[in-house]
Amino acid sequence: MYSYNTIVNYNLNEELVFEDFSLTLIQDRSVPGPNNAKWQMNALHFKISGKSGIKTIIWSSGTGRIKPTKFTYNEKEFLLILKTLVTTKPGESFSYIELQKNELVIQKTSK
């Protein structure tokens, strides 16, 4: 079982078990940028499963600032973080950690 707030390696179709659910990357695809742009965005489709059934969420590299994907499962709120993890400790300034390809962090934002 993986802990929240820790860097976890993931692969296509590999089930990652957390306290409240399991997370599986089910599709990794490139999609064209807007307005026939010559560049592509990544879209990662994750399946969340557990006591509350199955849900799919999508994380995208987007067209601008890369942000975590917020999601709710079993009435609890979480963040799926890829690319950049922002950390802070009391009394310290923000620290940025660049996540490698196939690394993610799940943060639980509510109980």
Topology:
Elements: E1 8-9, E2 15-17, E3 22-32, E4 40-50, E5 53-60, E6 69-73, E7 76-81, E8 84-87, E9 95-98, E10 103-108
Antiparallel strand pairs: 1-10, 2-3, 3-4, 4-5, 6-7, 7-10, 8-9
Please give the order of strands in the largest beta sheet.
1-10-7-6
The percent range for strand residues is over 45%
Looking at how many chains there are and whether they match, the oligomeric state comes to single chain
Helix content: under 10%
* Poorly predicted regions: none
Number of strands: 10
Number of domains: 1
Sequence of secondary-structure elements: EEEEEEEEEE
Radius of gyration: 15 Å
Task: Based on Cα principal axes, name the global outline.
Answer: globular
User: How many H/I helical runs?
Assistant: 0
State the distance separating the first and last CA atoms.
18 Å
Report the structural category. Answer: mainly beta
Q: Averaged pLDDT, please?
A: 87
Largest sheet: 4 strands, antiparallel
Please, could you describe this protein's structure?
By secondary structure, the chain is mainly beta. The protein contains no helices and 10 strands. A 4-stranded antiparallel beta sheet has the order 1-10-7-6, with no helix packed on it. A 4-stranded antiparallel beta sheet has the order 2-3-4-5, with no helix packed on it. A two-stranded antiparallel ribbon has the order 8-9. The chain starts with 7 loop residues before the first strand and ends with a strand. 13% of the residues are buried.
